[in-house]
Amino acid sequence: MARAPFAKMNGLGNEIIVADMRSRADRVTATAAVALNADPATKFDQIMAIHDARTPGTDWFVDILNSDGSSAQACGNGMRCVVQALAAETGRKMFTFETVAGILNAEEHADGTISVDMGRPKFGWREIPLAEEFRDTRAIELQIGPIDAPVLHSPSVVSMGNPHAIFWVDRDVWSYELDRFGPLLENHPVFPERANITIAGVTGADQLTIRTWERGAGLTKACGSAACAAAVAAARTRRTGRQVSIIAPGGPLSVEWRGDDHVVLTGPAEWEFSGSFDPATGTWARDTESAA
Ligand SMILES: N[C@H](CCC[C@H](N)C(=O)O)C(=O)O
């Protein structure tokens, strides 16, 4: 198959490859994802593959792959990168995308920031999903560390299209070994589809500071859907209001849980370089006119 164009971008340091798979029938394979992630120049957290629309009224279908080759149902930071790339190409500002999780609208603002409507959060244990019934998902029974002095415990759980667990902490989020606990919690049997694991602290009025261990990608500098999940969980547990500023390691994002139940994520996107790649194998080359 012919090579497909891609852009290496990031959303607050969340490493994103936007792949242009329009007008072709093949998909980016897990093999290609793993190969691209193994190369330091193209190492990424998610690939956002733009395909032709499947549903009337939508502009494009976006397929999302994690760096381990698994698929994700949502990626807020990646969607902003997709919007920036398509806005630059088309001159348009508003878009309607389809993903496996549903239809979502996004808009580029005059200041260059981008808002993505991430849809409605889901709180039911079957919807997240959890392996067993929990009536109240604002805090579920789950802990890690010594049984009588757990390091992390009682997370809020929520689906933003993808599964999230938010562990509330009092100390600095950097004082927890998320690289050690992340993989254990991501793969805990209570999460049959694994989960994105976030530690979150309230660091100001309507402000949260978070770090995320992403399902299928590991530690990342930012995770947009986790920012949304943390904001919603904070409002549900009355830690904040519904308009929240989220400080991720890569920088700030803003999240509004609107009155119509939709969660809107706003933040920047940044282009790094462009190239072309083989969606079957991940072999790639940088465009010669592209910046270093
Ligand atoms: N970085 C993404 C989330 C990727 C989620 C993925 N790790 C999964 O659910 O498997 C974001 O900005 O929302």
TrEMBL record:
Superkingdom per UniProt: Bacteria
Alphabetical list of PROSITE patterns matching this protein: DAP_EPIMERASE
Gene3D superfamilies: Diaminopimelate Epimerase, Chain A, domain 1
InterPro entries membership: DAP_epimerase_AS (IPR018510), DAP_epimerase_DapF (IPR001653)
Binding site for substrate: N14, Q46, N66, G76, N77, N162, N196, E214, R215, G224, S225
Keywords: Amino-acid biosynthesis, Cytoplasm, Isomerase, Lysine biosynthesis
Alphabetized GO MF terms: diaminopimelate epimerase activity
EC number: 5.1.1.7
Pathway the protein acts in: Amino-acid biosynthesis; L-lysine biosynthesis via DAP pathway; DL-2,6-diaminopimelate from LL-2,6-diaminopimelate: step 1/1
Active site residues according to the UniProt entry: C75, C223
Catalysed transformations (reactions): (2S,6S)-2,6-diaminopimelate = meso-2,6-diaminopimelate
Keyword match Amino-acid biosynthesis: yes
Annotated GO biological process: lysine biosynthetic process via diaminopimelate
Localization per record: Cytoplasm
Record site: Could be important to modulate the pK values of the two catalytic cysteine residues: H164, E214
First-tier enzyme category under EC: isomerase
GO cellular component: cytosol
Classification via Pfam families: DAP_epimerase (PF01678)
Function: Catalyzes the stereoinversion of LL-2,6-diaminopimelate (L,L-DAP) to meso-diaminopimelate (meso-DAP), a precursor of L-lysine and an essential component of the bacterial peptidoglycan.
Protein family per UniProt: Belongs to the diaminopimelate epimerase family.
PANTHER family to which the protein is assigned, alphabetical: DIAMINOPIMELATE EPIMERASE, DIAMINOPIMELATE EPIMERASE, CHLOROPLASTIC
Self-association state and partner proteins as the record states: Homodimer.
Name of the protein described by the UniProt record: Diaminopimelate epimerase
Native organism: Kumtagia ephedrae
Gene transcribed to yield this protein: dapF
